[in-house]
Fold:
Amino acid sequence: MRLSADPAERLRSRHIGLNLVFLVPGETGGMEVYARELIEAMVAVAPGLRITAFVNREAAEARWTDTVPTVTVPVRARRRAEWVRGEQALLPGLAARAGVDLLHSLASTAPARGRFRRVATIHDLHYRTIPEAHLGLVGLGMRVLVPLAARRSQLVITGSETSRSELVSLLGVAAEKIQVIPHGVGAQPRVEALPEGELRGRLGLGDRPVVLSVSAKRPHKNLPRLIEALAAVPAPERPVLVVPGYPTSHEDELRAQAARLGVSEDLRLLGWVDAEELEGLYEAAVCVVYPTLAEGFGLPVLEAMRRGVPVACSGTGAVREVAAGGALLFDPLRTDAITAAMQTLLADRSERERLRAAGLARAAQFTWERSARGHLAAYERVLSGPVTQ
Structure:
């Protein structure tokens, strides 16, 4: 269905709810970026659209958004059982009382009931394709809740054709029920970068070249192979590898591995860093290396490209799809291939310049405005259909 020139016009009488019960500020990685950027872009594209965000206690206390009105679901989402209770037992009633016509769940799970239309964004099926990424009760919960969201939603949104294929083949979701809407990437950094001299002093980088890999410390990010690849670079040529991103228990294993390989002094495993420091790292980096085994989209690749940083990344799945001709691709299962890509970008200035230009051109194709318009068109499509319980 075509969206009118003014998306707000056709949706003006409708009330959209956003299920953000999952979102603990600073702890939910790319899904938090998706939620924040999408909300701001939809408000910019359709300023007359009525949107209500349903948030947990952590987000409410942090005043996570002032862009749209919020309703607090009285649970603390750091406790997974509370998140599920809030989403499945409390949210349907709160959304109904708020009078939403459509509830969009942004984090792969969704309420199974409610007298409103339902859309779910399912980012990936890592709980099936990389089981070690979701162990124990978390993995068990995903095996129940993600298929439930797919079944009980009128439309499923995902960010890549790779994820769409997995939804069809692994969950049996009808292809016509899935809409691929790529994420966007910001047009420019929102803050000034920390000056390089101050950054280098703070992190003890000296004057050595910096390789950056923005990544959560989770098994599917393939960081053990990245550390092995770093160790394989001869010591006189070896860069400092800086890895910012939220910490997990997996980080202790990575530190132990670096110690065994004798590269502890060549590695900086950081947690979350502030925006100024992150921009400083992008400016200081010779390149970004992203060896992930699986992604639903690949936002870190685009974030580096739009800043003009040369990228080497996995040549598989959604990351290959997003990177297209804008990055140097390698086999993420081969440590020697990661090492070779890293050494190429460290040594070859002309290749860095080529990739800088190619990456900027590729990243320019992904905007949050375009993504927002795609989401609004999806809402319009669903609102034209019947309500199911």
Q: What stands out?
A: The domain at 196-363 is CATH 3.40.50.2000 (Rossmann fold). The chain has 16 helices and 13 strands.
